[in-house]
Amino acid sequence: MSTVESPWAKQLVDAANLQNLVKRVTLYPKEKINIARLNEYNATQSVRWILNQCYVPGESSKSAIAKIVSLALDGASRRFPSTHEFSLQVNGIRFSAQPAPIFCLTGLAGVGKSAIFDAVQRLIGSPEDIQIPKHGQVEHKPLSRVQILDRWGSKEMAKHFGLPERGCDIGRALYQRGCSLIALDELQFVTTSESANTRASKLIYATSLYGPTLVFACNFSLGHKLKKRPHEERDRILSSPIVLLPDLAQSVAWKERLRVWATAIEDLLEFDLAERSDDFWSLVVGINRSAIHLLSVSSALALSDRSGIRWEHIERAYKSQEFAIMRGNIESIQAISRGSDQGNLDLICPFESTDAAAYVDVVRNIHRSLFSESVGVAAQSKSVKQALKKESIKDANQPVTKRVARPLDAATLVKSAADFRSEVRLGRRV
User: Fold this and answer.
1) What is the mean pLDDT of residues 104-111?
2) Which of 13, 57, 252, 327 has the smallest number of CB atoms closer than 10 Å to its CB?
3) Threshold 0.70, pTM exceeds
């Protein structure tokens, strides 16, 4: 039976169409922010809630979603080649769940891996019924999504699927439901102990034994840890990575996302977010969670000033304590882009990727003027330093990406990276 003739696969064909895919997963806010209900205490949560309702997939996200849906389609064809085969399997005449292919969805924390699974769930997550000759009506639920908690094993997995905790055959139950894809999310919750790598690796492999194709999500940091596992495990669970990257500063998706966000909170904004697109990108390096958090913190600062959000609030929010953790990661990415080995190396993509290299290039280029100014002053003579200091006072209120860049060699940039980060932490530079 061909892919299209298989009733399980047939229901997934339309979802795999790229045009239908983008249209069906894109989300716009159902409402705009109600400024009358906001104050400096509830603004952060309210703005974050509104902005998280939006979803505009970029090129990397669209590619990942399409890949995962195609895996579900291939899995349906593999597991359910015919209604006759299904009848034999489900009646237990020759049921056997074979180890499934494993795919790793990896990216920076906050880049949108869970949002990818949300989008896939909107496409193929709704159960439908299939009529099987001589068998009757059966449920077809192609996607089973599992969000991992701190302690997770076979009992927790059975409970998640609504099955008895003891004596149940999870593989058979998933087959009866027509499941062709398992999405394993939030693996960081099992990576908080010394044995975390072992636990995560065992959980991934054990889940693959249920039969459906497995896609698990992990941060770059967990990817680096899993690469240290014995080669048998490493080859099994990391051989097929799907790398998810932030949208680039000049991408259509980034600009459209800013437009959608600006529309959702337009009553609160007092500057044109689209005009400051590159400036804003430079502060969050394209990471969605960081961008939403920065806007949320900025809203609270603005309301404490009894005003709307101005660019000065964005810059203050960036230097605030509330943004400190994300700022540290962003500064590490910036340092890595300049060739420094003093950044958090867990933020480097653990797999070979030309797209990841292109992203690092964009981070480096869009921050070059800021880095050049900081390092340039340190490299000049006393008289030139004084002249540059006067010049820097004049443009102190200019956005960091608009300052004049002074070309320097890579070695000088790397040597002064630590000095630059110290200045940032002291609040001398944005």
Assistant:
1) 94
2) 252
3) yes
- In a domain? residue 391: no
Residue 370 domain-assigned (yes or no): no
Which residues are bridge partners to 170 per DSSP? none
The size of the chain, in residues, is 430
The count of structural domains within the chain is: 1
Do 158 and 170 form a contact (C-beta atoms < 8 A)? yes
Helix (H, G, I), strand (E, B) or coil at 128: strand
Distance of CA 334 to the CA centre of its chain: 18
10-14, 89-93, 300-304, 305-309: the lowest-pLDDT one? 89-93
Bridge partners (DSSP) listed for residue 137: 131
Query: Has residue 423 got a pLDDT over 90?
Result: no
The closest alpha carbon to 32, from 291, 267, 300, belongs to 267
C-alpha to C-alpha distances, 14 to 22, 58, 66, nearest whole angstrom: 12, 20, 11
Q: How many CB atoms lie within 10 A of CB 91?
A: 10
Range with lowest mean pLDDT among 40-44, 219-223, 406-410: 406-410
The reported pLDDT for the residue numbered 231 is 87
- Output the domain CATH number for residue 198: 3.40.50
**What string of H, E and C letters represents the secondary structure of 262-321?**
HHHCCCCECCCCCCCHHHHHHHHCCCHHHHHHHHHHHHHHHHHCCCCECHHHHHHHHCCH
Burial class for 81, CB neighbours closer than 10 Å (0-12, 13-18, 19+):
middle
CA torsion, ordered 399, 404, 410, 416, to nearest 10 deg: -60
